[in-house]
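Recall that a protein's primary structure is simply its ordered list of amino acids. Everything else, from secondary elements to tertiary packing, is in principle encoded there. The following example makes that idea concrete.
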Amino acid sequence: LPIIAAELADGEALVRVVVLTSIFNTNFNQLAFKLGGLLNREVMTLPFRRDMLLEEKHIESMRSMLKKFQASHGVLVMVREHMLSMQLKYLESCHKGKTAVAQQLKQLLDLIRDSARDIIDEA
């Protein structure tokens, strides 16, 4: 898994390793050790919940951080629930008429959709 992630993280793709919640800590620590310690690649996570209070500046900050992370050949470790929560938060913002937040979330989701390469680890 670390070899695949390192190869796909070419500066153009935003590499996401999607893991089960039950093995998240183990996988994150393993990838951080192998990619960060041996290959000097940054490994991070982007936790997201629907009950988060978001403003435009927070979402823009996340988008900017992901672009820099992508350019630095980093690997993002996420659980499926966080990815779904981000999509649901966008729909919720649209429904509640929070257009500015919804637009920022759409740009963030578009960035992820257009540049993400997912590696799914269910073991």
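The two ends are 11 Å apart (CA to CA). The chain has a mean pLDDT of 92.
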